[in-house]
Amino acid sequence: MSTLRIVRGDAWTECARLKPAYVPLIVTDPPYGKILSADWDRKWSIEDYEALAHVIERLLMPGGTAYVWGGIGTPKHRLFFTWLSWIEHKTGLKIHDLITWRKKRAYGKSNGYLFTREECVMLVKGDKPRTFNIPLLDQERGYAGYNKLYPAKSKYLRRTNVWTDVTELFKGKIHPAEKPSRLAEIMIETSSKPGELVLDMFAGSGSTGVAAKKLGRSCLLIEKSNCKMHEELMR
User: Which domain covers residue 119, as residue numbers?
Assistant: First the structure.
């Protein structure tokens, strides 16, 4: 039976109360650092990212997976990329994949390419994930496969690490950094089993909880602000 728990509190304090090696899946969207004008984003530092890595390593089960969103940052302030270059040297986490979410709305400048992307790292505690359910798109491939000796296992196309089928354009946003819950659904479907726990320590509007509830997973949401949670979580 799946359960939902919402904790209003500081991520570091609340995570310290959880048992080590307790969580099979983490899906979270921490501050990026000087991308938004809000204090909680401007004050985020590389030390916070490093602390986050140690929290993730402590809480994940062996083979557990964490999806952590990040951005490319600004000149001389590439916190997410700096963190990724550090994490395998200082923790037992490995970068299993780097996902690019291609957005519909583009931002540009006169001397650059239109910008339509956001990044998410897939981290694993150990050598390989304990759970990986091959994710498929809704789109049929229309052919058996390129190699007759190894035909495709499904008539549907397999999802790549560039996600183009989820739009960021949706109504009813209740948090400035809110993402559509479909993104969390993909991660939860792929990297967990029904009934397992999903943790989001920077829960914001609770979209991870919406996805977990829909998919029959238990979920622990930690959020420091008084941001209103989605009504679906309260039903």
Answer: 4-233
